[in-house]
Design a protein that fits this description.
single chain; mainly alpha; 5 helices; elongated
Amino acid sequence: MELWKKYKILILLIGKFFFTYLILTLLYSWYLNLYLTDLKIADPFTGWVSDSVGYLMRLVGFDAENHQIEGEAFRRFYLDGFYCSRVNEGCNAISVMIIFVSFVVAFGKKFMPTFLYILLGLVLLHITNLFRISLLNYIFTYHPQYEKFSHDILFPLIIYGMVIILWLIWVRYFLINTKDDEI
């Protein structure tokens, strides 16, 4: 019992994080299974991400398009007529968003600020991800010598860096500056 009193807050934070993470991951796995295993096509969110990247790249002057080929669980992305990438479920950043949401929920105190911050964070992560994929497609097409470094190191740093920045803002401005010490 003494151990519980001593570590109650830490245990509750970890419990909230893992519970949220587990529920969201199970829901996401169920969603993915329907499309990737049963239908053997890219899921709708991944399709939306791929379509959005195409729109963004066309907006700045590139000839960009993507196609769903039946039986492929990804979208083929073409830039200026060159097949440059596959946009699959790993590209849609939902797994990263699940980690972000789990952390914010774990440290959330009041429903409305937590909910609004999650919404804002998800929008910022989505926009960051669209720019990340757009830049990767540009590099794959015009600077293939940087392909591996960009895909495996630089661009994961961008999306995870955004998560860390959002977490730091959450802790600094929404948790430390509050008078309510309950979790």
